[in-house]
Amino acid sequence: MAGPLGGKGNIDGPVGRFQDPRTLAITPTGVLHVYDYGAVRTVTPLLGTDSQVATLAQPYNLSGGTVFDAAGNRFTANMTSITRTSPDGTTTTFAGNHETGNVDGAATVARLGSVRGLAIDAGGNIYANDIVNNAVRKITPAGMVSTFASLPGPATAIAVDAAGNVYAALGTAVHRFAPSGAGTVLLAADDSTPGHLAGIAAMAVGKDGNVYVAEDHGCSVRKITPAGVMTTFAGKSEEWGSTDGVGEQARFCQYFANGLHGLVADSAGNLYVSDTSNGTVRKITPGGEVSTIAGRAAVAGHVDGSGGAVRFGSQNGFQLSADAQGNVYVGESVRIRKVSANGQSSTLNLPATGATGKPVFYAPGQLASGGRAVAFSDGVLSRVDANGTFSFLAGQAGVLANADGTGAQATLRTVSRMTMDGQGNVFLVDSVPVQSGVMWFLKPVYRKVTEGGTVSTLVEPEQLAATHWIASHDGGQVVVSNNKKPYEVTRIAPDGSRTVLPVSETEHVWATAVAVDRQNNVYVAEFGLVGQKESSRIRKITPAGVNSIVAGQAGMRGVRPGALPASLGVVEALEVGADGMLYLISENSLLRIVP
Fold first, then answer.
1. Are 256 and 238 in contact (CB under 8 A)?
2. Which of 77, 169, 198, 217 has a beta carbon 3.0–4.6 Å from 259's, enabling a disulfide?
3. Local confidence band at 461 (pLDDT 50, 70, 90 cut-offs)
């Protein structure tokens, strides 16, 4: 409906999602193998369209390193051994076995320490990074193992060029070994080196003979010439994001602490890098042009407009309210956005600060039903219309406390979430300081504010260990607790009576958002492991306790619109509009579900 889709997940296809892409390998035909959260996903690059993502039915442990020879045989490191898998799927032990050691020799007679990375040369010789023995081991196509080079310490990555030179990364230094095994230091980068490296996660040699390294923390890909001169090839070391572009115009990493991981080169000289924190695979051409070929990075911000040009963003969560015409009010804590039924977004002209100069935090409240929003600033709770006119409800400016009472007799401390029922009552989550030993922390407390400004503290949600707590249209409440497996849903009627609604799920899922319609049906957005795969779904529970899944599928995470049940990412906010439609925020986009 509005906003670009993007975020982590596990769905296959042309709009595939990745959860945690790391180690990469590439076949002779250019198909990428990506180690992703315990699974192996393939990426088949296509010209002019999204690459196809698929999950292998029989995954293997790609994390230790994998290479393919010209015939399509796959060689995979499994700590103390290397296996060979032929194109027909037959797997045999190629070198080493389950015993650790440091013995050269033929095939399984040899002993390896612990292999963390493989490289293969034009003649089919394999080079293994043995981090226990601080050595590069060479295995011929016949399976003969020898110690090719001894290292001063464990290497983080290795690579080999067309001439048979082997490169090993140790810290921020790169060592080069000639085919004879004679070694030199190609690059000795430290903090005093201009454009110093922030660790080396992976390394590859391009068709041009230059060595390329993916930074572990610095979010850029560097180029090292055969003369040992280093320049930034793509990205910028101390800046992060997910921008495609040429050279330093591009950005990698959602945040700098989670850097790049896998890096491989194809026969045409293109590089492929796993941008782990963004959940994407990026391609870099020989000219330095960066593009995203698989996965969709999350996009957040504050941009109005239409459809995919809209950007949503909130540090404190979203709240939604929708009218009978399909207009949606999106509360982003510090602002309220209005999105029309055709996806056009605008921001309400509401002040950023209150009377005392402190920030104002907003919730849509009853804007969608012709009423007013709710605002809190520096201890004062107010109602506010779409034009920014405030009317006092309760609290005292500058007094942050937790006293019940009416109007200015009451005090409020730190309101984090505000919802309204059909009678104009405001339900909010406040906090109270609690001491534990020498430490103080803020404990959530649940409070109700009537139309006349009377504030009272509710004990029930606290006793139920509320994770999500909202008001229903009839003046009741719905409490969801993630303290049990699965989560527990309790409806509190206006008279205070309680009903625990059954959740017909035995897997380890928890609630991420909740909504109630005018018939008291409860909708819970749930996320967790179903069949050992991450899943995101929306469950409907009727007042009689009947369960059904209205959107999302078991074992699938990532937004893919279409006919229900479709596929969902993690749902951050959920609302049933006056038009009977479900509205939700997932992957920082506003979506509409037609039941």
1. yes
2. 217
3. confident
Q: Say how far apart CA 555 and CA 480 lie, in whole Å.
A: 23
How far apart (Å, rounded) are the C-alpha atoms in residues 314 and 311? 10
User: pLDDT tens digits, residue range 293-307?
Assistant: 999 999 888 999 998
Look at residue 36 and tell me whether its pLDDT is greater than 80. yes
**pLDDT-derived band at 257, boundaries 50, 70, 90:** low
The closest alpha carbon to 41, from 283, 284, 280, 299, belongs to: 280
pTM to 2 decimals?
Answer: 0.90
Neighbours of 473 (CB within 10 A): 16
Q: What percent of the chain has pLDDT over 90?
A: 78
Using alpha carbons only, what angle is made at residue 118 by residues 116 and 120, rounded to the nearest 5 degrees? 170
What is the gyration radius of the CA atoms in the chain, in angstroms?
Answer: 29
The two three-digit tokens of residue 434, written as one number: 């609690």
CA gap 105, 144 in Å, rounded: 6
CA angle (456, 458, 462) in 5-degree steps: 150
Stretch 136-164: mean pLDDT: 95
User: Cα separations (Å) of 236 from 197, 218, 220, 222?
Assistant: 11, 8, 5, 10
Q: Are 50 and 12 in contact (CB under 8 A)?
A: no
Q: What is the pLDDT of residue 308?
A: 86
Determine the average pLDDT of the residues in 128-139: 96
The token pair that represents 521 in the structure block: 């049906």
Q: What element of type H or E holds 461?
A: helix 460-463
The tens digit of pLDDT for each residue in 52-106 reads 999 998 889 999 999 999 999 999 999 999 999 999 999 999 999 989 999 999 9
d(CA 431, CA 402): 8
Distance CA 170, CA 323 (A): 60
Spatial CB neighbours of 532, under 8 Å, sequence gap ≥ 6: none
Determine contact, residues 589/1, Cβ cutoff 8 Å: yes
| 282 in Cβ contact with 46 (< 8 Å) | no
Query: pLDDT tens digits for 511-533?
Result: 999 999 999 999 999 999 888 88
Cα gap 82→288, rounded to integer Å: 34
CA 582: distance to chain centroid?
24
Return phi, psi of residue 249, to 5°.
Answer: -75, -25
Residue 420 has pLDDT above 60, yes or no: yes
**Pairing of the two strands 498-501 and 115-120:** unpaired
- Cβ atoms of 577 and 590 within 8 Å: the answer is no
Q: Write out the two tokens for 48.
A: 């002019």
The three-point CA angle 330-559-308 to 5° equals 55
**Hey, what are 471's tokens?**
């008001």
d(CA 119, CA 480): 51
DSSP string, 521-545: -EEEEEEEEETTEEEEEEEEE-TT-
What is the C-alpha separation between 295 and 15, in angstroms, rounded?
A: 7
Instruction: Give the tens place of pLDDT for each residue, 210-251.
Output: 999 998 888 899 999 999 999 999 998 778 899 999 999 999
Q: Say what the pLDDT of residue 305 is.
A: 92
